[in-house]
Amino acid sequence: MAFYLLYKVVRRDFTYQIPLPFGVFSSFASSLIRAILKFIVDFAVIIHYRHPYEIGGLYFSLNMFLPSLGLAFLLASDLAKGSLSESTLALLSSLVMILGGSLVTLFGAFLLLMNKEYRHTFLSIETGGQLLRRLFLEGDDVSKAQVFKKNKILWAPIRDKVAVWVKEGWASWEEENPDWFTDKWKAKVPENMKPTKKMALRVEKGASERQAEVEFEFGGGGGEEKGQNGRRKSLSALIMGHKAASFKVTPTSGVMKKESEVDEVEFVREMKRRGSFSM
């Protein structure tokens, strides 16, 4: 048990995954949880506890061989002291070889027969913190959102990146309201990571401007206008949340006035340049 806890400390994987207050309580709770999990794995060998958040893949696999190694160590120690009879020595030696050989054979067959995509999980040296940070850096928003359900110590090295992700995405999450963006999740986000009201309004205003669009409808007129080879052009736009008025350009001599045509073209060109609407 002491070796296992020391192993977790050296790997910087001692703090347990669940959110815990910093300080003595966190250390005590992590020690208790780690000890209980190790006890369960020693006697029940529950393979789900090979997860990086729990025992860890490689240590879980090696842990199955520790009883045989411990027995071999005691046998060698007693043999050095000369406290074992020849019959006892022969019996214990046979027992160690049988147990060790059986474990190696069965575990090898177990790895060989399982689905290939799971084999690496029994040999992985990835810690819980490394897994959480990798999922955040490589995953989508759903994966990134899980970071606030884990202990802050695990994602402390990427705290700045987490803060940037929250501030940049908060406005769109408020609008789209994904399933994970709940009041409970919001409460777990540190206040200094949440965007201020001024920043949120600025982002929302920018999004509204980008979404504004102008629609042009061209069509031939009817009746008298069609007989005069007239052309009607109506502009219906939504710019900055206000609907532009429709207007009609009707030529007086069968040819549109050049000045009006130039003004309209320049207007469209300028609006395209500013990126305020899409055609």
UniProtKB/TrEMBL annotation:
Keywords (alphabetical) are: Membrane, Transmembrane, Transmembrane helix
- Ranges annotated as spanning the membrane: 20-46, 58-77, 89-113
What is the superkingdom listed in this entry's lineage? Eukaryota
The name this protein carries in UniProt is Uncharacterized protein
Q: Which organism is it from?
A: Triparma strigata
